[in-house]
């Protein structure tokens, strides 16, 4: 029985190593980003198609997601201060969270970047089927130039390089 359990665990692990890295995606790098409109917790209307000419970061998270809770403070500390005054916009969208839930979350966390609710996953489902956190960098023409799921410092460093380069172009 132990041997069978170990074999099954090994199979699951190795299968995940070979899993398609695009699993759960509904978008691809190079395509025009799906348009959406959302109002942030502080009342700002964020309509993606109105942001042509700016570099945009769209981040999807959930308050219960461990990697999201690692990523958001790093976005606050490293990315947001570096680009918030540049030709750049960012929105962090709480997947399947209500505005009330996010207001409670925000009162504890005190992030300074814009946060919005997507209680029915209408925005998220334009971009992905599953997995969070997710990040999408959209260039000045509205094309997705970077997309990723999960969180690592290496990915955050890569995102900051891509944003910096896209702002300069």
Describe the protein in words.
- The protein is of the alpha/beta class.
- It has a single domain, classed as Glutaredoxin, CATH 3.40.30.10.
- Helix content is 39%, strand content 21%.
- A 5-stranded mixed beta sheet has the order 5-4-3-6-7. Strands 1-2 form a two-stranded antiparallel ribbon.
- The N and C termini lie far apart (59 Å).
- About 9% of the residues have low confidence.
SSE arrangement, N to C: HEEEHEHEHEEH
- Which word captures the global form? globular
- List the uncertain runs: 4-19
The named CATH superfamily: Glutaredoxin
Classify the secondary structure makeup into a structural class: alpha/beta
Number of H- or I-type helical stretches: 5
CATH hierarchy: architecture:
3-Layer(aba) Sandwich
**C-alpha-based Rg, rounded:** 17 Å
* Strand element count: 7
CATH topology heading:
Glutaredoxin
Helix content: 25-40%
Beta-strand share of residues: 15-25%
The average pLDDT is 89
What is the secondary structure topology, with strand pairs?
Blueprint: H1 2-18, E1 37-39, E2 45-47, E3 55-61, H2 66-83, E4 88-95, H3 99-109, E5 115-118, H4 124-127, E6 134-138, E7 144-149, H5 153-168
Parallel strand pairs: 3-4, 4-5
Antiparallel strand pairs: 1-2, 3-6, 6-7
What descriptive keywords fit this protein?
two-stranded antiparallel sheet; 5 helices; 169 residues; five-stranded mixed beta sheet; alpha/beta
In short:
Residues 27-168 form the Thioredoxin domain. This protein is an alpha/beta fold. The protein is built from five helices and seven strands.
